[in-house]
Amino acid sequence: MSDAQQGHGADCLQRALRSRFRQRLMPGVSQTSGSNMKIRHGTEGDAEALRRFVSAVWSEGLPTLFEHATMPTLEEERQFLAACLRRPNSTIFLSEEDGAIVGMLDFQGHSRPQMQHGGILAMSVARTHRRRGIGRALLSELILWAPSHAVSRLELEVFATNVGAIRLYEEAGFRQEGCRRGAVLIDGNLVDMLLMARHVAG
What we know:
Layout: H1 3-20, E1 24-26, E2 29-31, E3 37-41, H2 47-59, H3 74-86, E4 91-97, E5 100-109, E6 118-125, H4 134-145, E7 153-159, H5 163-171, E8 175-186, E9 189-199
Parallel strand pairs: 6-7
Antiparallel strand pairs: 1-2, 2-3, 3-4, 4-5, 5-6, 7-9, 8-9
Helix pairs in contact: 1-4, 2-3
């Protein structure tokens, strides 16, 4: 497939995602038609709900995520949210259903002046809500948000064993840019860490 064809495919995906989640409730909030699911920007007031969500995801012990010796504290989540909201090239999106957080995507913009047009994202979805398009919706919101915040490069890291996530990122226009061979040790096995990125037109 040519670069032009790849670019056209990514543009088509973005338009499709934009159409699916274009119903605007208020600035920073979108909702899927006919559902109680909505995506909005996180605030410092979400610290406790986010702590519960993150604790649930971490406690699953998934082999495609880093292990955590302890669950996040309320103060750690407050500091995390404050950091996301402090810089204009950083943000956090939350997916809610009936008031409960069921997915999140945080984007941390780089601090070095020469790199502030880019940053790294991390995303997770509640076990009960996976394979329902929430990850795609969160990525779509980030892609739409980026140009108006002087962000043109989105980066991420993903375990090479996380085939489903890799497929999702590729469908959203991300391409592999590097590989850290054997960067992660899981159950005695070395696993590669893939570096992926996509550019967002202004």
